[in-house]
Amino acid sequence: MSKQGKIGVTSENIFPVIKKFLYSEHDIFLRELVSNAVDASQKLRALASAGELKGELGDLKVSISFDADAKTITVSDRGIGMTAEEVEKYINQIAFSGAEEFLDKYKDDKVAIIGHFGLGFYSSFMVSSRVEIQSLSYREGAEPIHWSCEGNPEYILEKGSRTERGTDIILHIDSESEEFLSKDRLSTLLNKYCKFLPVPIVFGKKQEWKDGAYVDTDEDNQINDVHPAWTKKPSELKDEDYIAFYHQLYPQTFEEPLFWIHLNVDYPFNLTGILYFPKVKNQMELQRNKIQLYANQVFVTEDVEGIVPEYLTLLHGVIDSPDIPLNVSRSYLQSDAQVKKISNHISKKVADRLDELFRNERSLFEEKWESLKVFVQYGMLSDEKFYDRAVKFDLVTDIDGKHFTLDEYRTLTEGEQTDKEGQLVWLYTNDRNSQYTAIERAKAKGYSVLLLDGPLDVHAVSQLEQKLEKTRFVRVDSDPIDKLIAKDEQRAVSLSDVEQKALKALFEGRLPREEKRNYSVSLEALGAGADAVLITQGEFMRRMQEMARLQPGMNFYGELPEGYNVVLNTEHPLIQRLLASEKEVVEPKLSTLRAELQEQSELVEAARTVQSAKKPEEVSVAEREELDALTSKQAELEGKISEEIKKFGAEELLVGQLVDLALLGNGLLSGEALAAFIRRSQQLL
User: Fold this and answer.
1) In this structure, which topology does domain 229-360 adopt according to CATH?
2) What family does the database annotate (predicted)?
3) Which one of 157, 185, 406, 516 has the fewest CB atoms closer than 10 angstroms to its CB?
4) What string of H, E and C letters represents the secondary structure of 545-598?
5) Mean pLDDT across 654-674
6) Average pLDDT over every residue of 58-62
């Protein structure tokens, strides 16, 4: 028997397409060929189960070997083998899937057949200049065949030399792919793609240390676990089995998982797998793409986006489903209704497992909350259905480490922390050290303070404000304590306009000048017992800036300098003393300027009164120019007065001390400014 022919393809350019574009990564050839060998072995098992195989099954292992000198890689199996007619049908007619035909015939045996597309074999041409097949069919009286092709539509089919049932695929590696002629490279690929195939995969012999070197033993080096944990029933596994499998998946991970979810569905789709919640050490270093996707125990990808909801790509583990549609490379997921059902099921199973743990083992749930929190928040932010399920077990934590559900915390705080508008105000800190003073003020009022220092807290807070009725979150240092939760109307500042401007100028002369921070002065009547000077940061702008750090689309806010408000308590004795000192030392020098300003202000007011009595179109250009000149002169006089007061403030030690104390209380004083504060403190003492 000898035949030459052309492979049945629609275009002679099919081989360049296969070689360059069919598969996303060239190393995929090994997975495809080993998968085909496993298919052949599984088919033989199905025939034996159906009583159609004469003789013994024997050892069904798949062997991989290479010869660096001959530049060949060989994949051998003892499976179903092929006749010349089957080679014609399944190899020479590209994309005719023998697996699908076989599956249809033996569907009741539920045997796992991997190849669905008939193109997997041709991945070998991505790395080979020539490919050979030596095969002998299981069929009684079959003759061995030899097929050879050099990466073009022409092939040779002749009598082969194989004497045992099964198939050898021999790849003659081309010059561009010699990297694969390495034991380490092949070991890495086999471990990646074939670690859990259902048929033993053998690569060389096991080694032992002898006479100062590793030497081969007589025992086959089987690289795969044919019965991984996810293929077993949950009732067959103990906690230690799940933990051992976790370390089998991630041998470089020494932490144990928090807990796991065993997926086992056979209707309306087939889905098995185990998902692990990893222990989170640093929430900013979470790893994605740690879930491995398999199809009948054949590794497909670690990019499971589309099957697993995005927020659950933070989980670790394995998903195996023959019902997930893949393209010919098995590397990219197609979007269809079945995938959506699987995604929804996984999301629901995760939410149900968390809810079960919360209800039945709350203390354990709270103990693990620091690691679980980022998964729950990410899910609530990403998926409305998950939010509805998770809101029951979403926890907030106060600065004493106590955990509350949202309903529990509402009950705890609504009596004391509801403002005069009926809004429930939840105070929080994201840095208990730098905001310690503000926290202590809140605690002195009997208020509870939450600790929100996670990477997603600022987004979670914004979502909860939209979802929860009449509830808002306010950072504990964003306003004086009496304004954070306003119970009554705020007391008015009882200073004249001249006094207020003088007091502001007094402190503006001592405010830090920093590139990334802006400081402004405001006056509040906070009572003699409150601090003389407070520094606050407005909730809205600060929150927008925090969100911008995590959300590139908000770069505008991220580029703005941080804004701080220096609040002067006009009722504090030290502030009143400084104002009195300014009146005594500075105001006598300003009498002439103030008289000129008074006169100029009267002129401005008179000009404005004349213009306000007219319609805009009736005001002449000369009148507008006159008013501009008058207001410009007024501003010039106000500036001169302000500069004189600022000079006094800049030299007044008490002003500098009060500003620096407020900065220090907010963690904003460091370096040279801190050293100057220490020297001044000693001087004042």
Assistant:
1) Ribosomal Protein S5; domain 2 (3.30.230)
2) Belongs to the heat shock protein 90 family.
3) 516
4) HHHHHHCHHHHHHHHCCEEEEEEEECCCHHHHHHHHHHHHHCHHHHHHHHHHHH
5) 87
6) 93
